Structures are given as C-alpha cells and as structure tokens.
Amino acid sequence: MRHIISLLMENEPGALSRVVGLFSQRGYNIESLNVAATEDPTLSRLTLTTLGDDSKIEQITKQLNKLIDVVKLVDLTDGSHIERELMLIKVKAVGAQRAEIKRTTDIFRGQIVDVGTSVYTIQLAGTADKLDSFVRAMGEATVLEVVRTGVCGLARGDKVLSL
Amino acid sequence: MAKPMLSGGEMLARALQDEGVEFIFGYPGGAVLHIYDALFQTSDIPHILVRHEQAATHAADGYARATGKPGVVLVTSGPGATNAITGIATAYMDSIPMVVLSGQVPSHLIGEDAFQETDMVGISRPIVKHSFMVKRPEDIPATIKKAFHIATTGRPGPVVIDLPKDMTHPAHKFEYEYPDKVKIRSYAPAQKGHSGQIRKAVDILLSARKPVIYAGGGVVLGNASAQLTALARLLDFPVTNTLMGLGAYPGSDRQFLGMLGMHGFYEANNAMHYADVILAVGARFDDRVTNTPSKFCPEATIIHIDVDPASISKTVPAHVPIVGPCDAVLDEMLDIARERLKQEPECLDRKALAEWWQRIDGWRDAHGLWTACRYAPESTDLIKPQAVIEALCKMTKGQAYVTSDVGQHQMFAAQYYRFEQPRRWINSGGLGTMGFGLPAAMGVKLAYPDADVVCVTGEGSIQMNIQELSTCTQYKLPVKILNLHNGYLGMVKQWQDMQYGGRYSESVYEDSLPDFVKLAEAYGHVGIRVDRKEDLEPALADAFGKYRDRLVFLDVHVDPHEHVYPMHVAPNGSMRDMWLSKTERT
Ligand SMILES: Cc1ncc(C[n+]2csc(CCOP(=O)(O)OP(=O)(O)O)c2C)c(N)n1
What spacing in Å lies between the alpha carbon of B579 and ligand 1's midpoint? Predict the structure, then answer.
C-alpha cells in the first residue's frame, strides 16, 4: 500500500542526505519526495510517498525515527488527511486542440498559466491520482513536459505535527 | 572564574580530557597537525600511534568492548579517513560506542577536490549512528559532548566528527567551557520498558513449558548479564547466547546450552526450534542465527526486549515487543516474577520444565559439542584446532580476554572457549572483519594491562593487520597471538569443500606464508612454532609464564582439513537442520 510519511527534521545540511540515504541503503523505495522550510527556521518539513506492506512501513518509520536529525514523524495515511501535489504540464496546442485542452483543464479546475503560439502550460493541483488522470485525459494532445512537486499533506482536523 | 581562551585544537584536546578519555588511537597527517600540536602541548591523554588507521578504529573498538567506555580515534583527512572506514563499519554493525575525529581540508577548499579531500561525512553516513561537520570552532566543546552522548546512550554506535583544518587553527582563540549536559530534542532513547508489556511477558514466561532464553550482544553492551543470569536461575530456564552474546551467561553453567545459529550447538538450535516461548534479549534475529526466517521456531511465542525499536520485528515478528534497556527491563521482570512465585509457587509448570530439561539433556548426550565431543581429537596425529582452544581455555581458566579475527578459528574460539563473564569475547560478529583481532587485542591490553589478552587468528586474518606488531613493540603490549595455522583461508575452503566440489579457488597460500616465528622476532617479540600435540601445552605455558611480559606469537600448525560443525543446512533449512560432521546431518 502507498503511504505518505511526513516528518520534521533539523534544518541542517546533511539531514536530507541522511533521510534519502536511508532509503537507498535499506532498499526502500521513494515514489515522491519534497522538502522545504517551515514557519520555524530551525526545522524543515519533508514528505515522501513510499510503497510497502505494514511490516515494511513499520521498519521505515522506525528507521527514520532513529535518525538523530528527524525530530517528529507521522504516517498521514494512518488517518484522514489532505493530500496535494502541484503539476506544471506543457502540451502542444494547435488548432481545434486548443479549445479541447482548455475544456479539460477547466473540468479539472486547472489553469493555463502560459500561452504560446503552439503550446499551453497548465498548472494543476490535487491528489497524485487526479494529476495522473489529467495526464491521461490529455489523450491525443502531445505532452511536451511534465514537472510535479511530489505529494505533501496534512492531517485533517486538530492534529498537528509540531514540537 | 574567567574562562580559558583556547584554540580549536586546544579545545578539542581539553574537551577529550574533560570527557574522561583514557586513550586516543590515531595517526597524524596534514589536516590534523594543529590538533596533534595541541595534544603535544596540552594533553595528558596517552596517544597510541598505530601503523594503519584501520587498526586505530579496531583498537578503539576493542577497548570499548572490553571496558564499556567509548573508544576514541583521531585520523587525518582523505586516506586517513577512508582507512578508518572498515573499523567504523565494524563498530557500527556490533553497536560499539566510538568517537572518530577526522581531519578535513580547510573550509574554503571543501568541494574543490583539494589535496587529501574526501567527503567523510558522506562516505561514513550509512555506517555511523550520527556525524557532525564542525562549522565554527566555538562549537567544538558542545559537539564533542553531543558526540559522546550519542555514541554511548541508547543503542550505542560510532559517531564521526569531521574537522576542517581552519577550525583548529592555533591563532584563533575562543572562550572554553565544557558543557555538563546535552539536550538533543530529537533524541531520547528509552529509559525503561512498558510495564504492561513486561507484565504480559512475565505471564507468558511463567506458563511456558519449553522455554529458551536467547541472549545477544545487547545484554553485554547493556551490562545486563547479572539480571539475565538471575532471571534464568529463578525460572530454571535454558539459555543460549549469540556469537555477540557469549559471556552474557556463564559458559560452564548447567543451564547454558552454548551458542546458537549457523555454527551453533546442536542442543541450542534444537531447543530453539522446539521452544514454545522464546525470550530474546538484546538479540536481533539476524540471518546467521535464524537460518530460513519462515521456518524459524514454528511453535514459539516470541518476547523481544531491545533498546532499539527498529530491531524488533525486523526479520522475525515479535509477539510481545518490549522497547527498553535490557538491564532495566530484566530488573522489572525479575521483581514481578519473584513476587508472583512468592504468592503462587505453583505457577511455574515445573513438571513440564523437567521434561524439557530431559529432552535437552538427550540432545546434549547425542551430539553436544562439549558433552559428546564431535571432533575426535584422537583420530589423527595432527593437532585439531578445537583442541588448541580447549587447551587455551584450560590454561587461562576461562578468564582471558579473547579477541578473534574471522574464519574457522573464530568459530572454534566461540564454540570451545567457555566465557564465564561478559566483555571477554571480543570479535567482529556483524561485519565479520578479518584483521580485527590484533588491533582489538591492543586496545584491550591497554585497558587491562594485567589481564591475559589473546588474539585467536588465522594466517589470512593476521596478515591483514600484521603491521601492528610494531605498535605492540612501541607500547610494550604483551598480547598473545594464537595462530591456528591451516595453510588455507580455512572458512573459504570449508565452503568450497561443501558447496563447490572441493575447487579451492584462491583459498590456498601455496608456499607463500612467512615464517611467523622469525617475523615476530623481527619486531622484537617471541615466536613459537608448534607442530606436535605434546608441544602445545608447554608452549602455552611458556606464553603465559616464562614470556608473560612479552608478546608471543604462537604459530600452531593444525589439521588443515578440519571443518567447523555443527553447520546449518542452507538454503531453506530451519534451526534444527544441521550438518554434524562431514558425513552426518540431522
Ligand atoms: C576483510 C575480509 N575479507 C574477506 C572476508 C571473507 N572471509 C571470511 S573467512 C575467510 C578466511 C579466513 O582465513 P583465516 O584468517 O586464515 O582463518 P581460518 O578460516 O583459516 O581459520 C575469508 C576470506 C572477510 N571476512 N573479511
């Protein structure tokens, strides 16, 4: 099963390499990964998605928790949560396709953020699934380039990951 | 009182002193010259100049294993740092507390492929508990404090501190104060176990009919041997130790089943296989113990105590996991068990236990390594390697510190030396590092100059750090080296005999081996060659008697074709599937 593990770690050089290194060293897979500063300048927040059965995920979270740089950790998939990913996608858009692409973009609540004579650049946010569907929905149109941020998320309700 | 003004190098020297460091094992070079000068001018801590940085790490490691205190290593950047890697990995795999100080090129050159630059923090990342790169000289005292704290608490392990050369410059002085406390917000190892879980575990133990206590290196590292022994005796349970746990339970005690695992005792492996309850303490169910995990101990309810939560249910799921230090958890178990037995003396099924012991004694009588003596010492005129270890054990009354390298000699030492106390058996169990034994023995001998310290080795292993004979000369370290000379990479040959049709691909030395007697003498030591059975005991007596104060290299020529048995049948075998000799299997 796919899990979203989100953690607070020391905002220090080397911390990220320890987390990423752990995954390659122990043969765990990373589907997506993102990391950025938080409201607390001493902490950064890293969110990754990974696949594995319960015992694998248990090992992953235990091993992550063992890293001295990892301050707090949550498996968002344990509870209800909000998940978002941002995608920018550049597609070939000529002739009748232009209207069709615009329509699909509207259906997915995306935005065309850059327009060229023969290309559109579309921005879309949502769950990883939704982004996947959008790429599929482009159908006939030629996809020139895709860039995605990787999944980030928060638990629903009062629950917070903080010190 | 005004705080002293010290340079980075001086702060480092001073902080090590304030930390109570007894020895520094190291080797100088450009990036650490400021530190070496500060040590020269300001430090009272003896520094042991090894002949290769790998040996510095193993010596520090041996010191740590024998004393329980962290070993300290100082090496230069680049090749000094990379040479230390094998020793750091060795310590990491066996959870040994160690602090490694590595020099680094000056900050402004980092990333420029400067002379002797290597990314030590990066290279060592997968084999350290944690690492630091010092960015400001004034951080040195706090960094040292943190490093020792991390290395020695929870599940211990090596910590690297990388020190760019400008951090230790003699001209730049800072106020020095050594912190007496550390706070690391993300690091809080368990101080005690969960009482509910402990209670549950005791209930299971008290109702066990075929229990085994399976104790590993964590019991030794966690100084929990006394508690383990008390619990085993209170309940009259059999105990088996892992390779890393030998000595955690007294070797000649009736309740001791010997080592378990790939080369474990017949009685220990069988008891595990048929057990209904296994109490695993400070052990990690690694592949050299379990054989095929899916066939491991099919009937057993497993209680697992470990200070490292990640060790629990990693390879074999635990029914009752208990995260906590072995000593504290066992203490609590003892209290509860004593109380229960007082109130309810009949709660232990003593009849079932007696039957279980009968069955165990049956295994011992049939194929017990110590009881049924499987290696047939009388069958040949050649000296059997097992007999050498038995003679050593007799000579030193089971009280020596025995270090070893890796190979058949290591397994023979583990099987036939009866360790009565923890911290006496010092070997690289996790990484299996040939070349560990001699430098480790040096570290032990420095810590305990009056104790007997023996390195059991083979021609392959000893030659991986043979240069340390020179260090032993310089610091007058009269360790005893016991080379079980079989003329082969014996353990490799054994596998080639068993699995590769006797094709000895690169495991034969031909006539290339040195005369170890002359070699020892060249370094100023004593060398004794032994070929005949009747010469063995007198040679050992000389090594520990007449030559007590000398390093003695005993080159004992043994039966070159001996194999280590029992040996797990693999792949797909269970705990009880073993080769018992070249021709017999269970
Ligand atoms: C550094 C290193 N290289 C290779 C090995 C693989 N290995 C394990 S045992 C062994 C043979 C050891 O030979 P020796 O030291 O002579 O001991 P013996 O088995 O003959 O007692 C080898 C090569 C190892 N454990 N460590």
Answer: 21
Contact A25 B150 (CB under 8 A): no
Query: Contact, B218 vs B329, CB < 8 A?
Result: no
Which residue from B428, B456, B388, B411 is spatially nearest to B563, judged by alpha carbons? B411
Closest C-alpha to B213, from B199, B223, B200, B227: B227
Q: 3-class DSSP state for residue B237?
A: coil
- Give this complex's ipTM: 0.94
DSSP state of B585: B
Sheet of B480-485, strands arranged across: B425-426, B401-404, B453-457, B480-485, B552-557, B526-530
A46 reaches B (C-beta below 8 A): no
Q: Which atom of ligand 1 is nearest to the CA of B464?
A: 1
Comparing CA positions, the residue from A122, A83, A86 lying closest to residue A102 is A122
Predicted TM-score of the model (pTM): 0.97
Cis amide leading into B179 (omega within 30)? no
Contact flag A62-B309 (C-beta cutoff 8 Å): yes
Which residues of chain A does B150 touch, with a Cβ-Cβ cutoff of 8 Å? 68
Q: For residues A30 and A63, give the distance between their C-alpha atoms in angstroms, rounded to a whole number.
A: 14
Site from B160, B186, B306, B308 to mutate, A interface, most A CB atoms within 10 angstroms = B186
- Which tokens sit at B71? 């070993």
Give B-chain residues touching A15 at CB under 8 angstroms: none
**Cβ within 8 Å, pair B125-A69:** no
Contact B573, B417 (CB under 8 A): no
Active-site annotation holds for B10: no
How far from chain centre, in Å, is Cα B531? 30
For residue B432, the tally of other CB atoms under 10 A from its CB is 17
Top residue of A12, A23, A58, A68 to mutate, by most chain B CBs within 10 Å, is A68
Residue B360 CB: number of other CB atoms within 10 A? 21
The DSSP secondary structure of B45-56, one letter per residue, reads S-EEE-SSHHHH
Q: Is B285 a catalytic residue?
A: no
Q: What residue owns the CA closest to ligand 1's atom 3? A: B434
Identify whether B386 is a catalytic site residue. no
CB contact under 8 A, A14 and B133: yes
Phi, psi of B141 (to 5 degrees): -60, -45
* Inter-CA distances, B418 with B219, B388, B412, B572, Å: 17, 13, 11, 31
Pocket test for ligand 1, best of B288, B384, B412, B434 (most atoms within 8 A of CB): B434
Around ligand 1, the residues with Cβ closer than 6 Å are B 405-409, 432-435, 458-461, 484, 486, 488-492
A21: nearest CB among B126, B185, B186 = B126
pLDDT truncated to tens, each residue of chain B (586 aa)?
789 999 999 999 999 999 999 999 999 999 999 999 999 999 999 999 999 999 999 999 999 999 999 999 999 999 999 999 999 999 999 999 999 999 999 999 999 999 999 999 999 999 999 999 999 999 999 999 999 999 999 999 999 999 999 999 999 999 999 999 999 999 999 999 999 999 999 999 999 999 999 999 999 999 999 999 999 999 999 999 999 999 999 999 999 999 999 999 999 999 999 999 999 999 999 999 999 999 999 999 999 999 999 999 999 999 999 999 999 999 999 999 999 999 999 999 999 999 999 999 999 999 999 888 778 888 899 999 999 999 999 999 999 999 999 999 999 999 999 999 999 999 999 999 999 999 999 999 999 999 999 999 999 999 999 999 999 999 999 999 999 999 999 999 999 999 999 999 999 998 999 999 999 999 999 999 999 999 999 999 999 999 999 999 999 999 999 999 999 999 999 999 999 999 999 9
DSSP 8-state assignment for residue B521: H
Is A44 in the B-facing interface, judged by CB distances under 8 Å? no
